[in-house]
Design goal:
about 375 residues, alpha/beta, FAD/NAD(P)-binding domain, D-Amino Acid Oxidase, Chain A, domain 2, 2 domains, seven-stranded mixed sheet, five-stranded parallel sheet, 17 strands, NADP, FAD/NAD-bd_sf, monooxygenase, oxidoreductase, flavoprotein
Length: about 375
């Protein structure tokens, strides 16, 4: 197909789309706001599911190298109450099965290294899209430059510039905020935290609060201190998020009566604290098909991270869209066919994600989470 295709956003979904397009001999340019591939930390760990993320990696010809990098032992899930009593502790699947974990940075590097050199144009922040007719759009960048494309794929996340052209929907605050921190060199410096977390993820839940620890590669553990609070909780408390001591003191007040072994996740981490309010798009989120534009991943269906589906669906979106384009003679009809499949499945996943966060950060937690896990495993 002789068309000029652009992907906005070099996350897992956008890069998967670019990789599969190139595997089919179709040219593509990826634009990303980061100054370089190593400009910022890519975050925590992801579990790649067999029917979604792994299926996308298979379509990209990257399943085998992914499995070599992944951590099957990271599938262990441990659920505690605020007294540190264990209610659930199980390993899901084994090597090559289930949903093995991989650090976001490693996954992104795997995808980037698979692309033709020069595919990603770094430091290109999209400011607006200008329709030129016939489905062609001019993409304007913050540096004053622009480029014209027959198809612009919005893979640019929660606050997508491309989505703003297609739909007026904006993400809403879920009522839950994560405050992220980390422990480094856990197997030597923080052995108590390593033992508490195990090889995968530990969730301690009680009364609209949660302490979540997640094993990453390289001896790191990321901690997510979850609270059902107002969006401006720190401002109301008079807390400067840059003041580690003040944040720590404010967080401790939110977890009265919790076991000391769990509170160590707040008091003993290596910082810094990062405030991450959880947003989600309305469900269902749809749009009228528009020639020359489409969305994938969080730009199309931002949802709670409790679903474990975000990156998996983004990558499946990217692979499906690329295969639809490769198998069609008409670019517009390929996009229409992709949207017909992607939109319904994203509604189902987003509904599940909303239910998952409601169960986890709930007045009766961890009861809802335990009931779900025991029923399904």
């Amino acid at each position: 197909m002789n068309a000029s295709i652009a992907v906005v956003g070099a996350g897992p979904g956008g890069l998967t789309c670019a990789r599969v397009l190139q595997a089919h001999g179709i040219g593509v340019t990826v634009y990303d706001t980061d100054a370089s591939r190593d400009a910022r930390n890519q975050g925590g760990t992801l579990d790649m599911h067999t029917g979604t993320g792994q299926a996308a990696l298979d379509a990209a010809g990257l399943l085998e190298p992914f499995l070599a990098l992944s951590r099957p032992e990271g599938q262990r899930m441990r659920v505690l109450d605020r007294d540190a009593a264990v209610g659930f502790d199980k390993v899901f699947g084994g090597s090559g099965d289930g949903a093995p974990e991989i650090d976001r940075g490693r996954l992104r590097a795997l995808l980037l290294d698979s692309l033709t050199p020069g595919t990603v144009r770094w430091g290109r922040a999209v400011t607006r899209l200008e329709p030129l007719g016939g489905g062609v759009h001019r993409v304007h960048f913050g540096d004053g430059s622009h480029a014209d494309h027959d198809l612009v794929i919005g893979a640019d996340g929660a606050w997508s510039r491309v989505r703003a052209v297609l739909t007026g929907a904006v993400p809403g605050y879920s009522g839950v905020t994560f405050v992220e921190a980390r422990f480094d060199d856990v197997d030597t410096r923080h052995r108590d935290i390593a033992a508490l977390t195990g090889d995968g993820t530990m969730m301690a839940l009680h009364d609209n609060r949660g302490l979540i620890a997640q094993r990453n590669g390289g001896g790191h553990i990321r901690v997510y201190i979850a609270m059902r609070v107002a969006l401006d909780w720190h401002e109301s408390a008079g807390v400067d998020l840059a003041d580690t001591g003040a944040v720590r003191a404010a967080l401790l007040k939110e977890f009265p009566g919790w076991d000391a072994s769990l509170l160590a996740l707040i008091t003993g981490n290596d910082g810094p604290y990062i405030n991450r309010p959880i947003h989600a798009l309305p469900v269902p989120h749809t749009w009228e098909h528009t020639p020359g534009l489409t969305l994938l991943g969080d730009a199309a269906h931002l949802m709670s991270p409790f679903s474990g589906q975000g990156a998996n669906l983004a990558m499946l979106d990217g692979a499906d869209l690329a295969r639809a384009i490769a198998g069609a003679d008409d670019l517009n009809e390929a996009v229409r066919a992709y949207e017909k499949v992607m939109l319904p499945r994203s509604v189902e996943a987003a509904e599940g994600a909303a239910g998952a966060i409601a169960d986890a950060i709930a007045p009766d937690a961890p009861a809802g989470v335990l009931a779900h896990m025991r029923a399904h495993h």
